[in-house]
Every structure is written in structure tokens, then in C-alpha cells.
Design a protein that fits this description.
Length: 70
């Protein structure tokens, strides 16, 4: 799982038409920089926080149930 720390940018990745690999056996791609997609950045941070809170909440609930059962 990846947690975004700082958005680096938004790029469209396309296959290259010509291979510039000397051996000619590597897949070739090029990245076209696009304007920053801030909606995507917000969604990624929201998912990271929801997962973190769910894990922490589940851990706390598990400890409470475990202590109550003792």
C-alpha cells in the first residue's frame, strides 16, 4: 500500500512509436505532463486516512474486547 506524502504531478503514459533501446527488446513509454489533478490527490489522502482510522479503531476495539473478556 502506498501513502501519498507529496503529490509529484499528473502524467499521461503512452507507448512510444519508435524504440530507442539499443537492443530493441524493451517496452518504451513516454510521459506527457498534465495539469495537477487535485481531485485525485484528495481522494488518495481520503482513502489513506480512512484505512488508517479503520485499522486504529479496530485495534482499539480489539483491545477493549480482549480486556473485557479477561
Amino acid at each position: 500500500m502506498h501513502f501519498p506524502v507529496k503529490p509529484l504531478g499528473t502524467h499521461l503514459v503512452l507507448p512510444r512509436r519508435e524504440c530507442d533501446d539499443p537492443d530493441g527488446d524493451a517496452d518504451q513509454y513516454r510521459a506527457v505532463e498534465l495539469p495537477m489533478d487535485w481531485g485525485q490527490v484528495r481522494r488518495q489522502f481520503a482513502v489513506a486516512f480512512i484505512v488508517a482510522f479503520a485499522l486504529i479503531g479496530g485495534l482499539i476495539l480489539g483491545v477493549v474486547v480482549w480486556k473485557a473478556a479477561r
